[in-house]
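Subject: NAD(P)H-quinone oxidoreductase chain 4 structure
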Amino acid sequence: MANFPWLTTIILFPIAASLLLPVLPDKEGKTVRWYALTVGLIDFVLIVYAFYTGYDLNEPGLQMVERYAWVPQLDLNWSVGVDGLSMPLVILTGFITTLAMLAAWPVTLKPKLFYFLMLAMYGGQIAVFAVQDMLLFFLVWELELIPVYLLLSIWGGKKRLYAATKFILYTAGGSLFILVAALAMAFFGDQVSFDMSAIAAKDYPIRLELLLYAAFLIAYAVKLPIFPLHTWLPDAHGEATAPVHMLLAGILLKMGGYALVRMNAGMLPDAHAIFAPVLVILGVVNIIYAALTSFAQRNLKRKIAYSSISHMGFVLIGLGSFTDLGLSGAVLQMISHGLIGASLFFLVGATYDRTHTLMLDEMGGVGLKMRKMFAMWTTCSMASLALPGMSGFVAELMVFVGFATSDAYNPVFKVLVVFLAAVGVILTPIYLLSMLREICYGPENKELVEHEALIDAEPREVFIIACLLIPIIGIGFYPKLVTQVYDATTVQLTARLRDSVPTLTPSPAVAQLGAQEVAAAPLLPKR
């Protein structure tokens, strides 16, 4: 079993299984949803088993590598592998997508097509985190957009076509920058190669490296999203259904963060040394701007969407910190927000199913009628505002301490960034607790109570939230549960980034591991 192609199987199994959905004898969608959930569970079990048996926590480079020639004339290979950056996100993808299919239980409109798109996304999203060929990365990045567009445009709200069109224009437009940069990197030098390790080993002129970095930054700024390329996200969230919300917040945003770490920082460290202050400033802008904008939102979905944008700003600050702790916090923030964002948006969908409104002005006092929903809203909101004991607190604290102790910036800049980011942290509980008060507390909206059946949470919904809260609280009390998966990789990457700034000394973690071991890691060869 050591030579079994686990990653290829994990990627292709849900896609192949989705092709059988059109021929299943099912009119009401009951068989289809059980079939899709079973496929999702099997694939998630395969992910966990492959991680448990084939992944070495102490190895910083690529593991479980599989490489097959696909189109030799174009040097296009099916090349997949995982390391500390991608393995946690592969597990997160399997976990969130499986729960999203359970959350899609009430879907009755075209269930075969709906679950076909969900399973196709399952494999496509894992492929984004696993592929190690730049051209293949571009292909799976693009193919993953089609299911999202259809899920928005068919099952969305009243403005679904506008939101879906805006999503595809923004993301497809940004993807063009990936293709141009990938081709430039592949054809640079004497050897033409799309292999990520070979591309990372090339010695680019600093001007070209800056252009490549800027191209990637634009593409991934759309997906993360980063101000001012963020406006598609509130519109998409405003029209999406609960399971699509979970995929958008739990996985799609993490694709942008992952690509920034993998390609911008990992492949172009010299350009990153110049762009890092820009990333930090953009991170602060994300935190403050999105938090303030969230205050003004009366639509529940858009309020939480802007909250997601604000939380992703910490990823940028950690990525620009040049410290092991800061980068580790950035990765943990992606994982933490994937869990918390999915839980909040699922609750939004469950609440809308009962109240048939998203406007906070039309809610009020529903906590008296739906006590279980009230308890879940309260717990998930506390997780989002980074309450100690929750995963968000640990991730944001690591980013703060990592940046504050960085020797790459002068003290005035660090104090200013930490102060502004702290203001964002203070704003977060204000608008989240205000939102919670308007939904669950206060006087009842008599018209809402009289005309809507405010039925409390059913076991399926409680189970989904419980599944999300277990890792949120588990990480909050024992962060090593996750950080040990990627520590070796982030230490190696931080060493490369610090090496690109001559004034910085090697980090203490590198000194403990040994500089030679770090430099010899196969994924990010030292130039």
